[in-house]
Write a structure and sequence with these properties.
Layout: H1 2-45, H2 48-81, E1 89-90, E2 93-94, H3 95-117, H4 120-123, H5 125-154, E3 159-162, E4 167-170, H6 173-177, H7 180-210, H8 215-250, H9 252-258
Parallel strand pairs: 1-4
Antiparallel strand pairs: 1-2, 3-4
Helix pairs in contact: 1-2, 1-5, 1-7, 2-3, 2-8, 3-5, 5-7, 7-8, 8-9
């Protein structure tokens, strides 16, 4: 029975991780900078319409944050339950224990930020703006976690493979975090998340404009999201090229296969 459960968890893992990385994380990481820019305009101008716009998108961000939190907890439970995970040890400590230790801390910090994010009256404009901007580095850590995991696939720096258990042991944590493949993936993933968040705001704003609803909020949201999304899209062109060079330095066989260089020597 245990083997059957382990098999099902392992079979579902790629689909769940793909859903998390493609849908939940980009929205959760991409919306905070857009909302923070809108709120920054409100703090600088003092116009009430910008505050209404920030609060409008803050409510949607709350829904996205709730779904992201549930998805993160579900992935954590599946990670701990699956005995086949290969990144189970960090500096000789079991990965599940570290996850169970850090998860309450992250959730408590997130709840603290959310409580301050929705409290406009007692914090004041400037303090509330600081709390809003704090969401950006918080989800930057979540993006970094994904980038480090995929970076190890390209360049397994700072890790050792146990031939007996076929488990990957992280022996040098700074080397893992400073892995060139992970760093290039991080900036590329962060830019992609910002583009997804801007597109999300842009599409909803366009929908409201087409139906002549919340026109004042939609116009301002459209302006901010289009400008921010354009900057993110332009940055992705350079960042994606850099990520390709980082991959080619450690994965020559993959690059040769992509280029159909079947007779090349690597």
């Amino acid at each position: 029975m245990t083997g059957s459960i382990g098999f099902h968890v392992s079979a579902l893992w790629p689909q769940l991780v793909a859903l998390y990385c493609v849908a939940l994380l980009p929205l959760a990481a991409g919306l905070p900078p857009v909302i923070a820019i809108i709120e920054s305009v409100y703090v600088m101008t003092g116009r009430e319409i910008w505050k209404q716009t920030a609060r409008f998108w803050g409510k949607l961000f709350g829904v996205v944050l709730l779904v992201w939190g549930v998805g993160s907890i579900a992935l954590t439970i599946l990670y701990v339950a699956d005995t086949g995970r290969f990144t189970r040890h960090i500096q000789g400590m079991p990965g599940p224990l570290l996850i169970l230790f850090f998860m309450p801390i992250v959730l408590a910090f997130g709840l603290l930020l959310w409580n301050g994010f929705r409290d406009w009256r007692s914090l004041g404009k400037v303090r509330h703006l600081i709390v809003t901007w704090l969401w950006v580095p918080l989800f930057g850590v979540a993006v970094l976690k994904v980038a480090v995991g995929y970076g190890l696939l390209d360049n397994p720096a700072g890790v050792d493979l146990d031939p007996g258990s076929l488990q990957l042991w992280i022996t040098d944590l700074p080397a893992v975090l400073l892995n060139p493949a992970a760093q290039s993936r991080f900036v590329h993933l962060a830019g992609a998340c910002y583009l997804v968040g801007a597109t999300f705001v842009l599409s909803i704003s366009a929908w409201y404009l087409l139906r002549d609803r919340n026109v004042r909020i939609a116009r301002r949201s459209l302006t901010v999201s289009a400008s921010f999304g354009l900057a993110a899209a332009l940055s992705l062109a350079a960042l994606g090229d850099r990520a390709g060079y980082a991959t080619s330095s450690g994965q020559q066989m993959r690059i040769a296969a992509i280029a159909a260089e079947w007779h090349a020597q690597t």
